[in-house]
Design brief:
By secondary structure, this protein is α/β, with parallel strands linked by helices. It has 16 helices and 15 strands.
Amino acid sequence: MPTPFLRRNSFWLILSLALCLISAVGASFVQSNGATVAVTDMRWETSSGRELSALLYKPASATPENKAPVVIVSHGWWNSREMQDANYVELAKRGYVVVSIDMYGHGNSGPLPLGMESENGTGMYDAVKLVAQLPYIDPDKIGVSGHSNGARAANYAVVADNEAEKPLISAVLLVDNEAFYSDLTDPAKYVNNYGSRDVGLVADQYDEFFFRSYDANGQQLTPPREFIGTPNAQSFLHFGTTDDSDVRTADELYTETIDGTDALRVVYTPAQTHPWGPFSKQTTEYTIDFFQEAFGAPDPIPAGSQTWQLKAFFNALGLIGFGMFLVAFTKALLVTRAFAGLRRTEPFQLAPSSRKGLYWFWGALVVSALFSGWSYVALSQSAALTPIVFNAAPTWIPQGAPFFIGLWAAVNGVFSIVVMVVSYLLFGRKNGQNLREVGVFPGWKPFLHGLGLSAVVVVAAFGIVFVVDYFFKTDFRFWVLAVKAFTPDKVGIAFLYLPLFLVYYVANSVAINSFNRFTIREKEWVNTAILALFNSLAPLVLVIAQYWTFFVTGDLIPGFGGIFSIWLFPVIVILAASAVITRKIFRATNNPYIGGFIMAAVVTVISVTNTLTVVS
């Protein structure tokens, strides 16, 4: 009986490629505003002596005869230039020239030397100096904006601009980081560090890091949602002075004449979290309104009329297509002469587990989930790891965040191996489990052969990413989870972290497919769904607990830093997807190592290409 077309692997392979293509074309069409905005990938050696990477968005209306305002935007720490897509899509279609940078140490820019974060605004001021020379921009209308530490980069850029012979920056929008409220040499003295520039501040009511006030002993007095009433906010809105008789409010524009120029200040306080800023319709609306107030819009469009969400939709389609490709291309290679020997040739009959087997199944899942959550929190509280994770001290580890996630993964991989050994010795061996039949011992030749297949799949998958980047200047992403093109130095860094991720993803694939594969109510997909859920359960619970506490009390869980819950956002999706991907590959090969190798390599590359690189 012929296999229905929708169940053929060829259909899924074609569909995966189609999704990647639709993603690229759709995202490119949106970000170029229907081909009316030219998108250029820029890389140059700056006056700081380092390479800076940026995306330039130039509307067709910007010409030497019709100069346009320009806004330099920046992502936050551990991100890349593409995270600013809401801003560059919306500003460019309104006639602004936009430059979205990779701060030094991020994306395709050169690595950041330890302790050099403030030099030329972590690259932002180097970008300002470059764009000031472009013939089609208005040199009197240069703005900067950034999210999180991108806002800190904007502050550093202002400091550098203040010291310049001819200041260049005329407007600043700080998103989800503090302004420089006080004298840089006397923190107790409020001053106006921004002069006559127009300055706005987006202060989230549920920001995990900023907008709190403290007493002289460092004890917190107010949570972020009460920021507008604090001395910092009031001094900012009073242009560096204090006036207790005039309490100023959020979302209100305040103006004052400084050095003969009308300057404005405004604070926006959306009810959202720190990482939501770059993905927020409300914050994007604030950005549009602010720069329209500061510069005027060459092509005025209501701030609420936004299309960047379409780009996000197309980017997400590509991410789905990328995941589908990993499975479909693996299975397609199994019919080639090079890898046909890895294909399962005999049908494997699944049987429901016994009652005692179900006890072991559920027990192992619960114990593993509890250990996963406990170990993550324990590692996050380790004083010994802190300087390494945050690249705060000289070390041979260039990327702290991937090291932390990789270490946690490896610890849980070792724990999973221990659970499997105990399960086999106390239950599996006594009940006829054959480790060779379930793929734990495939033999050295199939093992190495599978490693070769995995390498081909990973290279092919990222080959698609590079093609999309080259022709369309887009990538595959959803919010903080991104699969993007990268520079050659990331390959060497990836090999540094790959062993950590291999321990986990190989062990996880063996556990899912060789130890826990059976039918539940005569359906294998129920078993797969349960395993996918438990794979990501501990991170999911930690995130829910963190934000439930935050929303109810205004404070994070004591001892559990906000950045550690944010780092779990992509992990939740990846771990659930990993269970499905490795299961589908195992069904075609009876080899749990192939899926484990593929997931380890893919996750390692994703990790090292979406983070901070520091050299010391």
